[in-house]
Amino acid sequence: MVVLNKIYTKTGDHGETALGNGCRVAKHSMRVTAYGTVDEVNATAGLARLHAEGETDAALARIQNDLFDLGADLCRPDMENDDKAEFTPLRMVDSQVARLESEIDTMNKVLEPLRSFILPGGSALSAHLHLCRTVSRRAERLTVELATMEHVNPAAVKYLNRLSDWFFVAARMANDSGRDDVLWTPGANR
């Protein structure tokens, strides 16, 4: 259980923050940038939930929880020493990726095949889900970049890759199962 008695600690006043293993790093480090962007994805998912109902809202709630798991995973860099840690670090697992894939497949069954690229928009929920998609793609790019410098849990990268796909398909569902998608017309304004 997490207990936050005091919100400000002043320990970051000089541009550093603590990782999950206690190491202090610059707030602009690649690892902090990666998990900070995952937090942005979570915030955009919260905005999308303002427009979601039923199963879409429940799925977004699961995703928000997963995103905290992902942030916990990314803020703890020392995977090779996980077995020596005081407590078992939280890591993303393949079953979280598989759940996203299953949900994507279920949603995709009712969608017509795409014949054009889609412009973000349509319904309010769809527009917010497209924002989630683009921020999750940025989080993925940053996490992949981090993985070129330090060890990153492969399931974390896979999760981010599937997540942006999930947001894309869910955005189409939010546009009356794709019938209200806003299609790109190449060269329309020349």
From TrEMBL:
Protein name: Corrinoid adenosyltransferase
Assigned protein family: Belongs to the Cob(I)alamin adenosyltransferase family.
GO biological process: cobalamin biosynthetic process
Domain Cobalamin adenosyltransferase-like: 7-174
Pathway: Cofactor biosynthesis; adenosylcobalamin biosynthesis; adenosylcobalamin from cob(II)yrinate a,c-diamide: step 2/7
Enzyme Commission number(s) from the entry: 2.5.1.17
Lineage, broadest ranks: Bacteria, Pseudomonadati, Pseudomonadota, Alphaproteobacteria, Rhodobacterales
Compartments where found: Cytoplasm
GO CC term, one of those recorded: cytoplasm
